[in-house]
Specification:
3 domains, Oxidized Rhodanese, domain 1, five-stranded parallel sheet, single chain, Arc Repressor Mutant, subunit A, alpha/beta
Length: 367
């Protein structure tokens, strides 16, 4: 089954089936009990979702190896789709993919919503795209907090998005704001959310049109799932990680990491202290993309992280100044390289660097 056939088949299934499909794609084979714990769906809803997937020949089942009395479910061998050449994942789409669906995107149809995730929307955006300004509207930078579930539901619903929508996100620069919004959608367990590889730069470079006309969209009722706390790190998680075998990756610029700067730009608040969390690995966030802002090849990405001992079995926390650059690295580790235990510290340095008595290392004095 190719990718288009897979998308068409999934599109006809209920939200529970889509959610279960995504869970199996990310976590691998699972029993019904494990699925209900992972997805927080009721047993009845999960069973219904699985039945629909089986009827569509998207999942296979067999006795669980550890307990033959239970059934283990996995994606059918022909149901992964051809994807985009990056492991068959559906988390990334190309400019061509979006261009082919522009007519659909420009209709007031919640089935597909294109989203620009920064504050440059008014200068020109992809036709049919709506704006979600994550940094100004859904992130409390000073308080290091994210929008509540209720706020998120109301905000995205006003932009014509439902929990069944295919949401394709892009932004300017290296697509870091899009990655941050993608992470937020995943935090509230949205089933089908994707990044436009290369973001707005790739769209413009391909000669595709921009418009300043805002689309008319009908407000929708959005019902979010309970937050997935596994992908979000808090201050307490950093404190605990300092005494455990947890890898903390600082993805900021060398100047920030070494303690020469307390913020990346004048657009963001300055932390009281400059430096980095002790024992962290430094990896510049922009190393995961090419000069054109597209993600590097999977093999190259694997080598990049393996060289720093960040492997698929590593429990990892990533951070930057407020969480948007680290979200791009979280996307690579979690969505492209299938690392299963990766969290983004959304408080990041703006929280840690303002704490009284928090341990901080700096390399500035070594110069």
């Amino acid at each position: 089954m190719d990718r288009d056939e897979l998308e068409e088949t999934l599109g006809d299934l209920p939200p529970s089936s889509k959610f279960i499909y995504k869970t199996l794609a990310h976590s691998g084979p699972m029993t019904l009990k494990a699925l209900t714990e992972e997805t927080m769906l009721s047993s009845r809803t999960a069973r219904y979702g699985l039945d629909q997937l089986e009827d569509a020949s998207l999942v296979d089942s067999s006795p669980a190896l550890h307990d033959g009395r239970q059934t283990c479910y996995r994606l059918a061998s022909d149901a992964s789709g051809s994807g985009d050449g990056r492991g068959g994942r559906q988390s990334l789409v190309t400019v061509e993919w979006v261009r082919e669906r522009l007519t659909e995107a420009e209709r007031d149809d919640p089935g597909l919503r294109i989203v620009e995730a920064d504050d440059e929307y008014d200068r020109g955006h992809v036709p049919g795209a709506v704006q979600i300004d994550i940094m100004n509207d859904l992130v409390d930078v000073e308080g290091c907090g994210l929008a509540s579930r209720e706020t998120f539901e109301a905000y995205v619903g006003e932009r014509g998005i439902t929990e069944e929508s295919t949401v394709v996100i892009y932004s300017t620069e290296q697509n870091q704001f899009a990655a941050y919004l993608y992470w937020l959608f995943k935090y509230y367990r949205h089933t089908d959310v994707r990044l436009l590889d290369g973001g707005k730069n790739a769209w413009v470079q391909a000669g595709c049109p921009l418009t300043t006309e805002e689309p008319t969209v009908s407000r929708q009722e959005y019902v979010a799932q309970p937050a997935d706390e596994r992908i979000r790190a808090y201050r307490r998680d950093i404190e605990a990680a300092l005494s455990r075998n947890v890898t903390i990756v600082d993805v900021r610029s060398p100047e920030e990491y070494e303690g020469k700067r307390a913020r990346p730009s004048n657009d963001l608040p300055e932390a009281r202290t400059a430096g980095h969390i002790p024992g962290t690995i430094h990896l510049l966030w922009s190393e995961v993309v090419d000069d054109d802002a597209r993600f590097k090849d999977v093999t190259e990405l694997e080598q990049l992280f393996a060289a720093r001992d960040v492997t698929p079995d590593t429990e990892t926390i990533v951070y930057c100044h407020v969480g948007e650059r680290s979200a791009l690295v979280w996307f690579v580790l979690s969505e492209l390289l299938d690392h299963r235990d990766v969290a983004n510290y959304d408080g990041s340095w703006i929280e840690w660097g303002n704490l009284i008595g928090a341990p901080v290392e700096t390399d500035a004095e070594d110069e």
